[in-house]
Prior knowledge:
Order of helices and strands: EHHHHEEEHH
Distance between the termini: 36 Å
Strand content: 5-15%
Shape: elongated
Structural class: alpha+beta
Radius of gyration: 22 Å
Number of helices: 6
Amino acid sequence: xxxxxxxxxxxxxxxxxxxxxxxxxxxxxxxxxxxxxxxxxxxxxxxxxxxxxxxxxxxxxxxxxxxxxxxxxxxxxxxxxxxxxxxxxxxxxxxxxxxxxxxxxxxxxxxxxxxxxxxxxxxxxxxxxxxxxxxxxxxxxxxxxxxxxxxxxxxxxxxxxxxxxxxxxxxxxxxxxxxxxxxxxxxxxxxxxxxx
Length: 196
């Protein structure tokens, strides 16, 4: 089981969003069968089996064991990942695009950039996983409490200058065998309710 999987297929995204199937995915963090899952989700074994087959067809769960139980074979399934993220690629032409929301100070642009990051890193992760390799990434996540809007603006300006200087220092357009990397830095309020 992978720690995280990015869903980019529209049909698989739709299947994963069904409340019953999402619950089954959560339950299948540990291996289970239709018989063991039925009482947990309050459905008949046959109905659970139907949902499991749909999840399996879309690559969200996989067979991990089979065991004889009376005159039938019980299929033991497990989720293919501990958690899932739906890539904006599943939305096709209506997926967010930073090019369509060019105001870099808008929340829409930030969401479009985050969506592009999920799409691109998801594609890279899928490729690295199938090749049995690790994907080299780096992220910084922090928290800062500004005393005023002007302090926030000054911080954003200094941060932009520092990132621009670092990019200028290390970017080598003519580097033979070099590989481009995307740099994303974002600032947004926390969504913790009243104190945010």
